[in-house]
């Protein structure tokens, strides 16, 4: 990747220009690098050149190293002694392990929510229709799917559970190629989404729990098939 103007989002290209008062520079750098990794702009196993990043982002090495440390804890960056830091490689086996975990956590979050409004369920259905729109790009579908799942658990009052789900989703995003893939099986996913919505609408939260878990379990097979088609199955 070539760093420089036009390669980074304009508002964060020079991070010193406009940063939220409550965020440290290191946190902003971590947010930016995280987005670039998840979007595939920083490729798996790509070396993170500290000097170049420091210059291009307009920050010193201290906040940059703070960002690296945060991303290492998240599993997005690896530090190899005497070689430097690299974007973590994709691991197809990790997808198989992560998605059932996300499914179990999200299913629990859904089961804990017994207060739903018609407007919330209508919004879930509306997003689902947008996902099914054949004119949507892969990236747009991926973003809409993420919004759908975030809305699905937004009413869960267990903040720790929501944080756990967010972290596991982030890790899955690194390994499953989601930003590039979009949705591997749009029809299946949207049908399963709607089944979850209808179970909630009926007040059958046990069914909604089971449907949510099943949705993520099916996703393992769908993503594995897609990755094999892309020649990534043996990573």
Task: Write a structural description.
- Mean pLDDT is 84; it is low at 1-6 and 9-20.
- The protein folds into two domains: 10-87, Arc Repressor Mutant, subunit A (Orthogonal Bundle), CATH 1.10.10.10; 92-229, Up-down Bundle (Four Helix Bundle (Hemerythrin (Met), subunit A)), CATH 1.20.120.
- The longest helix has 25 residues, at 205-229.
- A two-stranded antiparallel ribbon has the order 1-2.
- The chain has ten helices and two strands; from the N terminus they run H-H-H-E-E-H-H-H-H-H-H-H.
- It is mainly α and 235 residues long.
- It has helices at 25-38, 50-57, 61-74, 92-112, 118-132, 138-152, 159-175, 178-181, 186-201, 205-229, and strands spanning 77-80, 84-87.
- Helix content is 63%, strand content 3%.
Report strand %. Answer: under 5%
The end-to-end span amounts to: 22 Å
Q: How large is the radius of gyration? A: 19 Å
Counted beta strands: 2
The tally of helices reads 10
Give the tally of structural domains: 2
- The average pLDDT is 84
Name given to the CATH architecture of the largest domain: Up-down Bundle
Let me know the largest β-sheet: 2 strands, antiparallel
Question: CATH fold name of the largest domain, please?
Answer: Four Helix Bundle (Hemerythrin (Met), subunit A)
Class by SSE composition: mainly alpha
* Percent helix: 55-70%
Q: How would you briefly describe this protein structure?
A:
The chain is mainly alpha-helical.
Keywords for this structure?
10 helices; disordered N terminus; 235 residues; Arc Repressor Mutant, subunit A; single chain; mainly alpha; Four Helix Bundle (Hemerythrin (Met), subunit A); two-stranded antiparallel ribbon
């Amino acid at each position: 990747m070539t760093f420089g103007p036009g390669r980074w989002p304009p508002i964060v290209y020079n991070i010193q220009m406009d940063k939220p008062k409550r965020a440290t520079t290191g946190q902003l750098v971590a947010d930016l690098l995280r987005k670039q990794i998840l979007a595939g702009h920083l490729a798996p196993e790509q070396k993170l050149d500290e000097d170049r990043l420091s210059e291009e982002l307009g920050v010193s090495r201290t906040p940059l190293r703070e960002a690296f440390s945060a991303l290492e804890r998240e599993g997005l960056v690896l530090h190899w002694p005497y070689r430097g830091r690299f974007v973590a490689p994709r691991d197809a086996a990790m997808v198989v392990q992560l998605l059932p975990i996300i499914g179990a956590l999200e299913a629990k979050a859904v089961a804990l929510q017994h207060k739903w409004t018609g407007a919330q369920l209508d919004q879930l259905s509306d997003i689902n229709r947008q996902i099914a729109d054949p004119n949507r790009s892969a990236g747009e579908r991926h973003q809409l799917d993420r919004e759908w799942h975030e809305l699905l658990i937004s009413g869960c009052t267990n903040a720790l559970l929501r944080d756990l789900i967010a972290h596991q989703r982030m890790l899955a995003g690194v390994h499953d190629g989601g930003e590039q893939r979009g949705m591997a099986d749009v029809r299946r996913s949207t049908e399963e989404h709607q089944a979850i919505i209808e179970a909630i609408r009926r007040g059958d939260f046990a069914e909604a729990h089971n449907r949510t878990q099943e949705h993520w379990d099916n996703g393992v097979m769908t993503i594995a098939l897609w990755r094999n088609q892309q020649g990534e199955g043996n990573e």
